[in-house]
């Protein structure tokens, strides 16, 4: 995926700026097998997922984000979304988790989705939730 590293960096920076947060974030762009391993190890789920976030408890370091590029490609294709836009959305989603957003409750989910849409607009990318509601 050309430009994936650069796009991931831009997406993280946009998310952190939007939230008024500073700190370092590692982004791992890897294959489904590695994310399946991480998902099993940390969440007891024996399958790959699109994105995982691992918040850190160290000053100046916010945490890690891991993306399964095969899953990301398949999801983008199935949803008819541009691959680069879907990748950026998932990085933004992961970064928002690192700064405290979640989507377990309906209200939290809505706030997180609105933050994602605003950040994607700042990146000049489509709203990932348009047409969902």
TrEMBL record:
Coarse class of the protein's main subcellular location: cytoplasm
Record-linked PANTHER family: ENDORIBONUCLEASE YBEY, CHLOROPLASTIC
Note accompanying the cofactor annotation: Binds 1 zinc ion.
The EC number(s) this enzyme carries: 3.1.-.-
Protein name: Endoribonuclease YbeY
Cofactor needs: Zn(2+)
Domain of life (superkingdom): Bacteria
Keyword Oxidoreductase assigned: no
Purpose: Single strand-specific metallo-endoribonuclease involved in late-stage 70S ribosome quality control and in maturation of the 3' terminus of the 16S rRNA.
UniProt keyword annotation of Nuclease present: yes
PROSITE patterns: UPF0054
Stretches of the chain forming a coiled coil according to its record: none
Organism annotation: Roseomonas elaeocarpi
UniProtKB keywords: Cytoplasm, Endonuclease, Hydrolase, Metal-binding, Nuclease, Ribosome biogenesis, rRNA processing, Zinc
Annotated localization: Cytoplasm
Protein encoded by which gene: ybeY
Main EC class the enzyme belongs to: hydrolase
Family stated for the protein in its record: Belongs to the endoribonuclease YbeY family.
Pfam families recorded: YbeY (PF02130)
Residues noted as binding Zn(2+) in the record, renumbered to the chain: 93, 97, 103
């Amino acid at each position: 995926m050309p430009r994936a590293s650069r796009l991931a960096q831009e997406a993280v920076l946009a998310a952190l700026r939007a939230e008024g947060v500073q700190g370092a974030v590692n982004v791992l762009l890897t294959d489904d097998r590695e994310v399946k391993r991480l998902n099993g190890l940390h969440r007891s789920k024996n399958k790959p997922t699109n994105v995982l976030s691992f918040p850190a408890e160290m000053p100046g370091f916010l945490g890690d984000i891991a993306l399964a590029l095969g899953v990301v490609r398949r999801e983008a294709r199935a949803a008819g979304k541009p691959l680069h836009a879907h990748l950026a959305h998932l990085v933004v989603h992961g970064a928002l988790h690192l700064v405290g957003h979640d989507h377990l409750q309906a209200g939290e989910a809505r706030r997180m989705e609105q933050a994602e849409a605003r950040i994607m607009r700042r990146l000049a990318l489509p709203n990932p939730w348009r047409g969902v509601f």
